[in-house]
Amino acid sequence: MPELPEVETVKLGLGPVMNGRKIDFFEKRRDNLRWALPSNMSERLQGAKVLNISRRAKYIQMHLDSGETLLMHLGMSGRVLVHDTKMEKLQSFKGYEFRNGQSEKHDHLIFKLDDGSKIIYNDPRRFGAVDLVQSSALNNHVWLRNLGPEPLERAFSFEYLSSKLSLRKAHIKTVLMDQRLVAGLGNIYVSEALWGAGVCPSRTACQVKSENIFRLIRSIKKVLRSAIKQGGTSLQDFRGVRGDIGYFQNKLNVYGRAGTRCRDRNCVGTIQNIKQSGRSSYYCNKCQR
User: What is the largest CA-CA distance in the chain?
Assistant: First the structure.
């Protein structure tokens, strides 16, 4: 499932294409994804101007001049692809997946902009979700209202995290994946951040020491910024809006590396894989305590 860096990569790709453009035509090819699509969706989107594209946690937010905001979650396999007529000649360049306007089976939503560009939402598994909400009520939407702070913002501080962890007796990895504590983190980046901070994923959250909390905050921010710079992690379905893969999978230190040696040159440990809350957790058996 795409995590914060992948959704941020999509947001950064959509902004230059959609900001300030009018949706000339919107085509809905089914009535539901994970849940039913908004009522009168085509009528509400058609003719609206996109003011800007933003992100909250793992949700893309398309702010419209109609006073509504389109919320989009990519689910397990959702992709948002841009078909730009100016790029057709580069369809085989760097792995781009341009299709010369030809639709595919799992193209469920199509936005046609006033400059001829098309934005296509493709989702084979249909675990994604889309909603339209009044912009004035956006922060009270059921998907957003209980989210914690963004991990790259100031609100995600030592004071904040230490106060939250002191109340939690679950494993630190499970706690950090709670979207009510911090928004946007998932399995890959929590595993990587814990390795960077030297914290074992099975340590009880309230027992993490202050110096480790400082290191953990720095590690989370460092890992996320690096992943965004690399265009996210493409292990299975994720692609950027031009169809290109991310490259952070080449920098993974623990995730998916069970049985290999720790990449800290001063460590002789081996990467382990355990199950926590039904998810795989990867960690070094020597340098993470």
Answer: 61
Of 220, 233, 171, which Cα lies nearest the Cα of 1?
A: 233
Catalytic annotation, pick one of 21, 126, 251, 279:
279
* Bridge partners, 83 (sequence order): 118
| Catalytic residue (choose from 3, 6, 8, 68) | 3
Strand order in the sheet with 79-83: 23-28, 107-113, 118-122, 79-83
Region 19-47 average pLDDT: 96
pTM: 0.92
Buried b (16+ CB within 10 A) or exposed e, 97-123: bbeeeeeeebbbbbbbbeeebbbbbbb
Residue in 2, 5, 151, 201 annotated catalytic: 2
CA dist 16 and 53 (Å) reads 9
Active site annotation includes 2: yes
Write out pLDDT tens, residues 88-108: 433 433 333 444 455 678 999
